[in-house]
């Protein structure tokens, strides 16, 4: 037992030092320091407890998270923008759910005197305990004004992450599933992505094919920006059929060239198919149309990525009935959802224990969500830029490709065989130009 406490103290001392270092920089030999100087007031209780073996030896048994001689190890503590993060090693015999269940996280928050505690697993036996004193995503974030910068199609600026960094989203070589209850901000995520892609759209490297089965209401304002724009069942099916055709042509061209991935060019741009609320299609499509829709979508999702045909599907209800191919989306975004089961539908079984809490997002923070990607087990909490109607119009104006025909209107009826190079407008007209 003595060795345990010594080991624990050493670990805790290291933890304090780490915490302290993060705050203040260098300690001079012999200098009297308050090891918690600089810890924000709202985290002082937690810091005092977590850095004191006696306090911890009282806390763990009370919370049912350890017993004498068998305490969890507090490995490190770090201040972050939203509060603090503690790395903890569980004790043998514990289950992840012993830590992540709502009662335990609530009891930890009360004991440590912080508004919210979130626990997720970092690797088997190890946990990330976040003490959240401040929600960095509580305020909406206006989109920066339109720019003409380069765009990395595999890292498109869409908003901010809770750690303050930019939220960058993979669009090229990916498909994105975007689920969220009504009013959760799906529209703002889509407009943020379009804004992020803007310069590449204008330069001709990205074509947006928009399907708005809700009647073209929301995305009609961007008509100038979409290379295809459909809202009827037949129109959407024709558009997807065409996309499958392009996909197959590109795939055979790649095969014969022995190339694995298509790199978008202005001649063969990234085709980004956006479907806002696929389930709305079901409301008026026939059974045959729905079957055809699923067939085409299945083809695009399974074969489109490498050839530069990507799909973003936005859904209110992520159930199997509305979206049978959830596993074919390498990037999944869960905004506010009503039920924990819906979070699992988007992010997979056990995602709640790994930190995806879409069902706990309040309806006061539209645009907030959890992003999960194939290849990573962790989720990133993000907020999309807030794009109002005026900004959407500015995005459309700034990035709409310049039309090939310079002026519209009268020229539409122009018949080259009637062209008279000597004609002076008004001269031979009945009324005459001086009349
Ligand atoms: N990122 C955001 N930041 C701040 N406010 C937002 C954000 N996104 C959306 N909102 C607010 O929430 C409202 C609903 O957002 P939005 O229309 O994008 O939701 P939705 O998920 O598309 O809803 P629906 O399923 O009904 O189409 C917006 O009118 C706006 O006021
Ligand atoms: Mg919407």
TrEMBL record:
Pfam families: FtsK_SpoIIIE. InterPro entries: FtsK/SpoIIIE/SftA (IPR050206), FtsK_dom (IPR002543), P-loop_NTPase (IPR027417). ATP binds at residues 180-187. SUPFAM superfamilies: P-loop containing nucleoside triphosphate hydrolases. Residues 407-435 are annotated as: Disordered. Keywords: ATP-binding, Nucleotide-binding. Residues 153-344 form the FtsK domain. GO terms for molecular function: ATP binding; DNA binding. PANTHER family: DNA TRANSLOCASE FTSK (PTHR22683:SF41), SPORULATION PROTEIN RELATED (PTHR22683). This is S-DNA-T family DNA segregation ATPase FtsK/SpoIIIE.
């Amino acid at each position: 037992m003595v060795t345990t406490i010594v080991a624990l103290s050493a670990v805790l001392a290291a933890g304090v030092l780490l915490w302290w270092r993060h705050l203040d920089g260098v300690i001079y030999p012999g200098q009297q320091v308050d090891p918690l100087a600089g810890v924000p007031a709202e985290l002082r209780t937690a810091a005092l407890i977590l850095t004191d073996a006696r306090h911890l030896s009282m806390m763990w048994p009370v919370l049912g998270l350890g017993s004498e001689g068998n305490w969890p190890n507090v490995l490190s503590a770090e201040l972050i923008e939203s509060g603090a993060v503690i790395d903890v090693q569980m004790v043998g015999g514990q289950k992840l759910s012993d830590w992540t269940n709502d009662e335990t996280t609530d009891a930890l928050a009360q004991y440590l005197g912080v508004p919210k505690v979130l626990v997720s697993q970092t690797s088997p036996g190890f946990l990330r305990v976040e003490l959240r004193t401040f929600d960095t995503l509580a305020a909406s974030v206006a989109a920066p004004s339109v720019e003409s910068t380069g765009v990395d199609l595999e890292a498109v600026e869409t908003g901010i992450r809770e750690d303050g960094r930019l939220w960058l989203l993979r669009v090229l070589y990916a498909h994105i599933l975007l689920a969220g209850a009504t009013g959760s901000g799906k529209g703002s995520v889509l407009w943020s992505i379009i804004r992020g892609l803007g310069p590449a759209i204008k330069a001709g490297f990205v074509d947006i094919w928009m399907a708005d089965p809700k009647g073209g209401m929301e995305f009609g304002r961007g008509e100038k920006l979409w290379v295809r724009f459909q809202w009827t069942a037949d129109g959407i099916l024709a558009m997807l059929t065409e996309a499958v055709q392009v996909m197959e042509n590109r795939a055979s061209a790649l095969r014969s060239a022995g190339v694995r991935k298509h790199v978008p060019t202005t001649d063969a741009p990234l085709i980004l198919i956006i479907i806002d609320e696929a389930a709305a299609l079901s409301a008026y499509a026939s059974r045959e149309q729905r079957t055809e829709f699923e067939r085409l979508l299945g083809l695009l999702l399974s074969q489109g990525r490498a050839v530069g045909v990507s799909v973003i599907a936005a859904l209110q209800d992520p159930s199997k009935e509305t979206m049978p191919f959830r596993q074919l989306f390498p990037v999944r975004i869960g905004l506010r959802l009503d039920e924990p089961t819906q979070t699992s539908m988007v992010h997979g079984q056990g995602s709640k224990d790994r930190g995806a809490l879409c069902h706990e997002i309040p309806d006061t923070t539209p645009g907030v969500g959890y992003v999960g990607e194939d290849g990573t087990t962790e989720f990133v909490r993000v907020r999309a830029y807030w794009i109002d109607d005026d900004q959407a119009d500015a995005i459309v104006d700034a990035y709409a490709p310049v039309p090939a025909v310079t002026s519209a209107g009268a020229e539409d009826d122009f018949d080259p065989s009637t062209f008279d190079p000597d004609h002076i407008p008004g001269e031979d007209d009945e009324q005459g130009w001086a009349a």
